[in-house]
Specification:
The protein is α/β, with parallel strands linked by helices. It has two domains: 162 residues, Glucose Oxidase, domain 1 (3-Layer(bba) Sandwich), CATH 3.50.30; 36 residues, no CATH class. The strands form two sheets. Strands 1, 2, 3, 4, 5, 6, 9 and 10 form an eight-stranded mixed sheet that branches. Strand 9 and strand 10 form a beta hairpin. Helix 2 packs across helix 6 and helix 4 runs parallel beside helix 5. The N and C termini lie far apart (44 Å). Belongs to the class II aldolase/RraA-like family. This is Putative 4-hydroxy-4-methyl-2-oxoglutarate aldolase. It is an enzyme of class 4 (lyase). Keywords: Magnesium, Metal-binding. Pfam families: RraA-like.
């Protein structure tokens, strides 16, 4: 994992989203299977037809350790892009996690793997393997564009995409916002008078906007 990706591991998606004005968030239906998952890594993109996951298997074989598989499954919620066996293969090869605009199956087994999976839900139906699909091409996932190599960050609140060309600038701005948020929280926590003063100041500055 590169230094910059490691630094993103400690930044909440909310701070990153605020820094980017909310422009690169995936749809809120894409959630982690476990709330404690925090995912950060570079996107290895997968474009697959609805119901055909052979491209996912190819991606698992070709992706580098630390990559995040970002899968455009067209939002399909009938056929799973993978079950616990395939997800286990990804974990064994060092893939950082899976983000999919679609669904998985074998949810109990996948949770036992303790491997970050972000998806729209679960289903019982498997995919076919006719062989179509494309790897490491620009895709849309959860309503936002993803380029190969973009940094993907996910946590309990959802998934954000950091464009590769802006990753340094966005990281610094997000870290600055995180520090300010923490300082603000510390200044008012458990102090009713400080809370009232903060609200008065905020409401006064917002008046007439």
């Amino acid at each position: 994992m590169s230094d910059i990706v490691a630094k993103y591991q400690s930044v909440p998606t909310t701070c990153i989203s605020d820094t980017m004005q909310g422009l690169h968030n995936m749809d809120s239906s894409i959630k982690p299977l476990k709330e404690e998952y925090h995912l950060a890594g570079r996107a290895f993109t997968v474009k697959m037809p609805v119901g055909d996951n052979l491209a996912v298997l190819k991606a698992i074989r070709e992706a580098q350790p630390g990559d995040v598989l970002v899968i455009d499954a067209k939002g399909d919620t009938y056929r799973a892009i993978a079950g616990d066996f395939i997800v286990g293969l990804a974990k064994t090869l060092g893939i950082q996690g899976i983000v999919v605009d679609g669904v998985i199956r074998d949810i109990v087994g996948i949770k036992q793997l303790d491997f970050p999976v972000f998806c729209k839900g679960t289903t019982v139906a498997a995919s076919g393997k006719a062989g179509w699909g494309e790897l490491n091409v620009p895709i849309s996932c959860g309503g936002t564009s993803v380029q190969p190599g973009d940094i993907i960050v996910g946590d309990a609140d959802g998934v954000v995409v950091i464009p590769q060309a802006q990753e340094e600038e966005i990281l610094q701005q997000a870290l600055d916002k995180l520090m300010k948020d923490q300082e603000r929280e510390a200044s008012v926590s458990g102090n009713p008078e400080a809370v009232r003063a903060y609200l008065d100041k905020f409401l006064a500055s917002s008046a007439g906007k």
